[in-house]
Structures are given as C-alpha cells and as structure tokens.
Amino acid sequence: MRIAIVEDDSVQAQQLKQWFVEAGHNVHWHSSGRSFSQATTRESFDLVILDWNLADTTGMQLLQTLRANSISIPVIFMTSRDTEEDIVSALQNGADDYLVKPARKAETLARIAALERRSGGFQAQQATLRYPPYTLNSKHFTVQCDDETIQLTHKEFDLIRFMFQNNGRVLSRGHLLESVWGFNPNVSTRTLDSHMSKLRRKLSLTPEHGWRMVSVYQFGYRLESLSDSTVSLV
User: How many CB atoms are located within 10 Å of the residue 71 CB?
Assistant: First the structure.
C-alpha cells in the first residue's frame, strides 16, 4: 500500500515509517496539514494515518476536507485523544478506524491489513481475474478479450492489473510508478505514459468494451467501468 503519515512528531513518524516499510508498504511522511493538503492535489494514496493535533490545523479538519471533496481514501486516526466523544466524532465524520497512542506495532499492522483486505488489496497475485469482457492471467501475462488472447510484457501486465484492481480511482503518476516500477530513478513519467498508450491500443479499452482509460490532466489516470461489470476470481 501507499501510505501517507500526517504527523508533526518526527520521532513517532519515523517509528511508524520503519514499521510500515518493513511490512512492505511505501510511505510518505507529511509533518503538517498544509504539506499533506498540497500533496493530495498531485498524488494519490491507499491509506492515511492521521494525527488529530497538528501545528497548523487539526486532523478532523483535514478529514472533513477529504470527505467534502469526495476523496474516499481510508483514514486511520492515531492520536492521544482517547475520549469516547472524540472516537465517535472521528468515525461519524468518515474515519475508518481509530488508534490511541502510544501505537503498538502488531495491532497497527493488523488494522492496516484488515483495511487492505476490505479494499480488495489482497486479491491473489496468481489468480485469474475477470473484469468482463477482460480476463487477466497472471501466470502467462496475458489478457483475453472475447476470443482474442493478448500477450503483454511483465510491466504492462502489472500496470493493467493494478489499474483494474483500482478501477474508478484516480491514481497519480507517482503512485503508479511507485507501485509498478518501485523506487527506480531511471523510470520517468514518460515511460508510464508510453505504457498507458500501448495498453489502450492493445486492449482496445473503449466504450464498446465497457471500459475507458482516462488521463487526468497534471495528475494521473483513471480506469472507468461503463457497465455493471464486477471482478471475480476464477
């Protein structure tokens, strides 16, 4: 997962970052609400770990802004505020979970894993996935559309699988590069744009097939379903 930590205590933030990186996640730390708010205009995340008491704003204000802008990214509050009133308020305003400091490693990672399962992040990598009329075969790096089997490169396959698994979401270029290519300084946004162009052409991602790949100006991409298709594991 690509996790944003919004925490103005550098010691706590670095501890969380170490836990999450060791668990295989990509982590971006923001020490202020302003920094995080600016990041959301150009980047996407899979999860936000949010402190309540920040120097320049409150976690509640940030949460309310996210939800007011229809940003449905999961949010876990991690704060020293432990009253029932605070917990209920956070959940009623759109938080997905609430942890009281000091954070405990095993519990924190377990709650993140639970959110990831609910969001579909644990779809089996080797499974055959169906997004009608497309069937993705992870073993052979192929996509079948109707009666045609399309061979993809490994990166093309990883990219389109990630897009299908996150269909409907606007994913930033940085998010896509990080998730598919990892932290590789030799891979640029031009590489991503080239792969997207090839996938559009190879898979005919057009309204006729019920899907559309949309380029979001100065941000990234969104794969849209134009039908009631649902994913299934075969």
Answer: 17
pLDDT in tens, 5-53: 999 999 999 999 999 999 999 999 999 999 999 999 999 999 999 999 9
pLDDT average, residue stretch 69-90: 94
What is the domain extent for residue 109? 2-118
172-207 residue pLDDT tens = 999 999 999 987 777 889 999 999 999 999 999 989
Angle between helices 154-165 and 173-181 (to 10 degrees): 130
> Do residues 36 and 84 share a domain?
yes
Whether 9 and 78 share a structural domain: yes
Contact 200, 24 (CB under 8 A): no
Check which CATH number belongs to the domain holding 54 and give it: 3.40.50.2300
pTM across the whole model = 0.84
Mean pLDDT (whole number) for 142-151: 94
Q: At what angle do helices 84-92 and 59-68 cross, to 10 degrees?
A: 20
The domain that holds 142 is classified in CATH as 1.10.10.10
Contacts 24+ apart (CB under 8 A), 107-111: 108/16, 108/19, 108/78, 109/19, 109/20, 109/23, 111/76
Residue environment code for 147-172, b if the CB has 16+ CB neighbours within 10 A, otherwise e: eeebebeeebbbbbbbbbbbeebebb
96 and 181 inside one domain? no
